[in-house]
Structure formats: C-alpha cells, structure tokens
C-alpha cells in the first residue's frame, strides 16, 4: 500500500461516481441479475442489503481497492492491538475490550487492561444485583425505585438509546435521563420522584463538564434537602477521573471507573452503561455486550469483501465522495430505535467531522456527511417529501426489525410494509410524464438493515456495526476518528460569556455578540 495506490484508488472512485451519476440503480438489476443476493450480507445476526446503493458490482471492487490502498486492514489490526490510534490525545481506542468475553487479553499501548475491565464489570454486576434485589437501600432504609442518570454526549446518548430500545413495558426501576443544562430537563426528570427511593448516577468521563456538574449539584441539593447528609449514599458516579467523583461526595464503593482509552461516544459498554445494567438487569447488559463482541470478531476477522462495517462504510463513502452527497438520513422502522439517529449524529459527526488528517494536513476531499432522521413511519409524514421529490439526493439507511417486541402483529406488518415500500419507492420512483407534481424521479439510494428481533444481542451488534463503520471511514479519509477538538472553542467562549452575563467581567466581543449579551443582561 502506498500513497500513490491510494491516490489512484480515489481517482478510480471519482470516475466510478461520474458513471454512477449517469445511470439508474434500478437498471443495475437488469445488468446484474444476481445483484440482490450478491450485495446482501449477514453477520452477528444482522442482514445488510446494499443492492439499492448506486454502485455496480465493479464499483464495489473499486471501493474495496480503495479500502486496501488506504490501509484499512493494517488500521483495523492496530485498533484491536491497542495501539495509539488517537494520536492527538496519545491514546488507544479500545471499546472492544469492554465487551469482550472474559479472558480476552486486550492491552492498551502494551499495558494489559482486560483484568481491570473484568473487575469493574464484576463490581457493576454486584451493584446491579443489590439494587434490584433491595439488598442495597437508601438512607431511610427503603429500596430504590428510580434512577436519575445525569450525563451528556457520549455519557448520555448510548445509555438513553439502550434504555429506550430495551426497557420493559412495566420496569421494576424507573430510569430517567438528564443531559441539558437547561434546568427544565432536570425539573421534569425529578418530578414525581421520591428522593428516599432515588439513586442519582452522575456520568462524566472528565467530571468537569459544565452541564453535568451543574445538574449533579442540583440533584445532590434535591437529595440533601429531603434526606440530609446521609443522602450521599444515593449518589453514584461513573468517571475516568474517580478522584473528582469522590471529591464530589460519592461514596467510594459507588464510584465506577473507566479509562482514558475509552472514547466518550464509544463508552456505553463501560460503567457508563451502569444505569441500564441496573434498570434492565445484568443479563440484558451482558447480552448487549455479547452482540457487540460478535460484531467485533466479525469486523476483525472477515475479509473486506464480506465485512459488514467495511461494506457499509464503502457504500456511504461512495455516496459522499463519488457522488458528492453531503447528507444521509437514518430511519429506524421501530419506535424503540427512535434514538438511533441522535446517537449516530454524535458517533459519526463528532468522530469524522474533521477537515485535517491525523498528521495535520488538509483532507483533500469532503469527510463526514450530516446525519439526521427519525423513526419510521413518523418520518414519512415529515421529511420524506424532500427525500422523494426534493432537489438533493439524500441516501437513507433504513433499519427494520422483523418481529416486533410487543403489540399487534398486524400493525407490525404494516410497519414493515412501509419500510420496504419506502426503499422501493426511493429507488424505482414513478414516472408521470404528464403530471410534474406527481412524478417521482426515483434513483435514490438506500441501505436496508434487518434485525430479526430487537433483543440486546442484536442491538449490541447494530451499535458496534456503526462504530466500526465510522472507524473505517476515518481510515479512508486519513483522519483521527477518536478526538473532538472542535467542541472546545464554544465551551471556552461560553465560560467567558457567563462572566459577562453574571456581571463578573466585561470581556471584549464582536458587535453582534455584544448586543446579544446586553439584551440578555
Ligand atoms: O461534546 C464533547 C464531549 O467531550 C463528548 O465527546 C463527550 O461525550 C461529552 O462531551 C461529555 O463529556 P464527559 O463524559 O467528560 O462529561
């Protein structure tokens, strides 16, 4: 693999994209009769149909050449070997170690980590069991009935998605989430809860995040107002800075650590998932891990041409770079997966929303697409008009679940019929030469991901699929998918503007910003 090979592969992609822009996806099925089966892949319980993407089978070969020339195989090996793949922060990215079966033997930059991971997992399992059984009780001796999970970004989106996807209809423990520093969210979350029966789980990798600390302080005050100092036994913390959590007043045995080699948006597998492990039960959390671990093994071992994360990344990059499409929609046809789009927004846009390579040179081509979406069928009644007849072509990832978790199978069939129909309508369209308003151009690509049932294993595999897909894209673009320097400037400026609003300082600003500050003051 050389830079020259990679450059030639990008040129081949440009040419393939130009050709793809001139032809119809539906037409490819005539030229390639085995297309549907050749471009449908299965692993770790997931089925991925990429046949409605705009690539020909020859184009898939071009994309696989690009993957090889870009060093995907070596990068994948480095990731699993615990090498320092996050160079700007000098860290490995080893979320796979968190969900690997016991005895996996992962090492981060040469230092064994699986032992520590297993010890923390055992502590989480014991804690979850004690809370659920009532062996661990609150300050007044009553069992816990509710958990308030406080965290933001990666310390929120993954656990929120898992809970929404897997929560029982009548959960033994109520689990509520608070992310925003807008006090309205905490107020809503605390409404109706009894402090004597509530655990407050503060989750922050750094334990310095403004939103999370503000909410954690307010929740601690809420507990103390009702229960006094003894209420600190209701505090739980999850952090890679456990000293800071202890300093906050969290009892030693309720501080759960994780490590700097776990990126925030890849952290739900660590103790960041503790609230879910307690509220869903340990078995479900373990099964989630098992599903992700199965996808890890597949990603690590499967040849590139049968590798789901690699192929999904290549399909997305074909659209992004071959066809210049800057937006992608994600539409899960499962109400329980309605939080998949916001989860993927952070995973993909924080990981790959970069304009310089890992060694600081400008990336010569567009990187991450913007991601948006909502559950189907709801999205059909909101933004699908634009997907079908708008001026931009927006590729869609459709995620469907064959067998529903609950409710009427007839309604589930209607849901699935819509999922399949939308993919068909997007690609085939409907020519109405005499009625421009009713004409559907078609030729709009989609991927179709099918889960058999929305069980923890399948959800774990689905999330791990997108994690690795995001990594592969980062490798193709030559960027570091594991840092997020772009979120820092806003944080710094917010701290200065807070001083201005509170009258503690008069910092200089541009005239527009200054006017807004004055209006608010
Ligand atoms: O938004 C920036 C970010 O650093 C995310 O990457 C992270 O998931 C989130 O803030 C929360 O950070 P922490 O877990 O340290 O509170």
From TrEMBL:
Leader sequence residues: none
Location in the cell: Cytoplasm
Keywords: Cytoplasm, Gluconeogenesis, Glycolysis, Isomerase
EC number: 5.3.1.9
Catalytic machinery residues: 350, 381, 491
GO process annotations (BP): gluconeogenesis; glucose 6-phosphate metabolic process; glycolytic process
Top EC class for this record: isomerase
Coiled coil: none
Catalytic activity: alpha-D-glucose 6-phosphate = beta-D-fructose 6-phosphate
UniProt pathway: Carbohydrate biosynthesis; gluconeogenesis; Carbohydrate degradation; glycolysis; D-glyceraldehyde 3-phosphate and glycerone phosphate from D-glucose: step 2/4
One Gene Ontology CC term in the entry: cytosol
Entry's Gene Ontology molecular function annotations: carbohydrate derivative binding; glucose-6-phosphate isomerase activity; monosaccharide binding
Family: Belongs to the GPI family.
Described purpose of this protein according to its UniProt entry: Catalyzes the reversible isomerization of glucose-6-phosphate to fructose-6-phosphate.
The protein, known as: Glucose-6-phosphate isomerase
Species this chain originates from: Phenylobacterium zucineum (strain HLK1)
Gene: pgi
């Amino acid at each position: 693999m050389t830079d020259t090979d990679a450059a030639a592969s990008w040129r081949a992609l440009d040419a393939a994209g130009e050709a793809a822009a001139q032809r119809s996806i539906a037409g490819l099925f005539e030229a390639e009769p085995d297309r549907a089966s050749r471009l449908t892949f299965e692993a770790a319980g997931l089925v991925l149909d990429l046949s409605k993407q705009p690539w020909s089978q020859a184009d898939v070969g071009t994309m696989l050449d690009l993957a090889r020339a870009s060093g995907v195989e070596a990068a994948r090996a480095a990731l699993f070997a615990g090498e320092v793949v996050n160079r700007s922060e000098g860290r490995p990215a080893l979320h796979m170690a968190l969900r690997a079966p016991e005895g996996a033997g992962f090492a981060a930059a040469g230092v064994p980590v699986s032992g520590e991971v297993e010890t923390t997992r055992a502590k989480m399992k014991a804690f979850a069991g004690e809370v659920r059984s009532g062996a661990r009780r609150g300050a007044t001796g009553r069992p816990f009935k509710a958990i308030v999970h406080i965290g933001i970004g990666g310390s929120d989106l993954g656990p929120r998605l898992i809970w929404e996807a897997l929560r029982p209809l009548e959960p033994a423990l109520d689990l509520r989430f608070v992310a925003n520093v807008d006090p309205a969210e905490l107020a809503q979350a605390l409404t109706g809860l009894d402090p004597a029966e509530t655990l407050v789980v503060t989750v922050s990798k750094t334990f310095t995040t403004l939103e999370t600390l503000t909410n954690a302080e307010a929740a601690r005050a809420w507990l103390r107002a009702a229960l006094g100092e003894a209420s600190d036994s209701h505090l739980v913390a999850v952090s890679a800075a456990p000293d800071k959590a202890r300093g906050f007043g969290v009892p030693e045995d309720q501080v759960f650590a994780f490590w700097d080699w776990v990126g925030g948006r890849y952290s739900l597998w660590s103790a960041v998932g503790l609230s879910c492990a307690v509220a869903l039960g340990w078995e479900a959390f373990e099964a989630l891990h098992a599903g992700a671990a199965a996808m890890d093994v597949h990603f690590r071992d499967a040849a590139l041409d049968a590798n789901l994360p690699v192929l999904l990344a290549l399909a997305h990059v074909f659209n992004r770079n071959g066809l210049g499409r800057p937006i992608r929609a994600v539409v899960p046809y499962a109400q329980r997966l309605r939080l998949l789009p916001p989860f993927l927004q952070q995973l993909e846009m924080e990981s790959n929303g970069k304009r310089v390579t890992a060694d600081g040179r400008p990336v010569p081509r567009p990187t991450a697409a913007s991601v948006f979406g909502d559950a189907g069928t709801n999205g059909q009644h909101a933004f699908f008009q634009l997907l079908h007849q708008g001026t931009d072509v927006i590729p869609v990832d459709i995620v469907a679940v064959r067998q529903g978790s609950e409710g009427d199978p007839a309604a589930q069939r209607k849901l699935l019929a819509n999922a399949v129909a939308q993919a068909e309508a997007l690609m085939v369209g409907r020519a109405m030469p005499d009625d421009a308003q009713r004409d559907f151009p078609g030729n709009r690509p989609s991927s179709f991901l099918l889960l058999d049932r929305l069980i923890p294993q399948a959800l774990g595999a689905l999330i791990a699929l997108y994690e690795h897909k995001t990594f592969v894209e980062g490798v193709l673009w030559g960027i570091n998918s594991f840092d997020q320097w772009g979120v820092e400037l806003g944080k710094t400026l917010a701290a200065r503007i807070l001083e201005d609003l509170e009258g503690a300082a008069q910092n200089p600003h541009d005239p527009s910003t200054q006017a807004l500050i004055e209006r608010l003051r």
